[in-house]
Write a structure and sequence with these properties.
Radius of gyration: 65 Å
Strand content: 35-45%
Strand order of the largest sheet: 2-10-9-4-5-6
Number of strands: 21
Number of helices: 3
Shape: rod-shaped
Length: 348
């Protein structure tokens, strides 16, 4: 209705009479939409025809009225006392409707406008939300399908439009419709929303698909656990080596002590048997009444006997005469009187 009033105002402003005025001259709509064209003239007329791509789809006769050839096409009359105005309506437009829309009034010049029918398909980000470590990169893949003409694909990250040189896009036609793929690389600094948009000129609002890039901060837990594990293992190894070393040193010390204590304490008996431990004889030991002593010693070469023909005796001190004299003889030859014999035995 607004377009009709705009046409009427245009006619009054230009003062055109006799020549039909068709508005708009170029229309772009989406498939399945409804499109309207207006024809206006200031002179009376008796016949009007509408054609789509040279095919007659509707006629109007001032006497008989409207002759519709297809239910998709219709007209409305907005004429006034001074201006004749009709609106031509096409419902549920198809891709094949694209082309010329023409209106002929009696013998007047035919007026032609252009109709463009576009198709919007689908758009989606493959994979959904993505999670990366801080500083790493994530690649988002956006796919569009079933578009005509080739759609315009763009990206918005955290509300900011991404420069078109920052992503790669490719497209191909299949059965007259376009499919496209666009790849965007985003570095993980903060968690942001990533949106992919696809649009054609007939769309007032682009179609979009959005997901989130979740950025995880550096996790030091794993590193700490690894370091603690390695440190604990190293400490355990050192502890084991320390225990083994101490045991070895203790064993060596014990063996050395036993070796020193065992030297000369065991006697190899004839026939390979080990004899009992024996002490060495005291050469100063003398049996009562014996005038000679045979001393036996054991050494590495066997028994060695040494004959003693003399021995010394320690005389008793005589309390009577010797005490009066103050000094007494310290030693006397064996055979004297008043002599006390002392026996000394040393066992090693």
């Amino acid at each position: 209705m607004a377009s009709v009033f705009f046409t009427l105002l245009l006619l009054y402003a230009t003062g055109v009479s006799g020549v039909p005025q068709l508005e708009p001259l170029n229309v772009t709509v989406l498939r399945g939409s409804e499109v309207r064209f207006n024809i206006s003239l200031s002179e009376e007329w008796y016949s009007m025809s509408w054609m789509l791509n040279t095919v007659l789809v509707l006629t109007i006769n001032s006497g008989s009225g409207v002759s519709e050839h297809n239910c998709r096409f219709s007209v409305k009359n907005y004429s006034s006392a001074d201006i004749y105005c009709w609106e031509f309506i096409i419902r549920d437009v198809w891709r094949n409707d694209s082309g010329d829309v023409s209106c002929g009034v009696q013998e007047k010049p035919t007026q032609t406008a252009q109709l463009f029918v576009q198709e919007s398909g689908t758009v989606r980000i493959v994979g959904g939300n993505m999670t990366v470590a801080q500083g790493h990169q994530a690649i988002f893949r956006c796919e569009t399908s079933g578009w005509f003409p080739k759609p315009t694909v763009s990206w918005v990250v955290d509300g900011v439009v991404v420069d078109q040189n920052s992503y790669n896009s490719s497209s191909e036609a299949l059965d007259g419709l376009y499919n496209s793929i666009s790849l965007l690389t985003v570095r993980g600094v903060n968690s942001v929303q990533v949106k992919c948009l696809a649009s054609v000129s007939a769309l007032t609002t682009p179609l979009s698909s959005s997901f989130y890039l979740v950025v995880e901060p550096h996790d030091w837990t794993v590193l700490i656990a690894v370091v603690c594990s390695i440190g604990g293992f190293a400490l355990l190894v050192l502890l084991i080596f320390g225990i083994v070393f101490c045991c070895k040193r203790r064993k060596e010390a014990k063996s050395s002590y036993q070796k020193e204590m065992g030297t000369g304490s065991q006697i190899q008996m004839s026939g390979g048997a080990v004899g009992q431990r024996q002490g060495k004889e005291n050469p100063a030991y003398v049996i009562d009444g014996q005038t000679s002593v045979t001393h036996s010693e054991f050494n590495d070469s066997g028994y060695i006997q040494t004959n003693y023909t003399k021995h010394f005796e320690i005389p008793d001190l005589v309390n009577g005469n010797q005490a009066a004299n103050g000094h007494a003889s310290a030693y006397n030859i064996l055979g004297g009187t008043g002599v006390r014999k002392h026996r000394h035995v040393t066992i090693v």
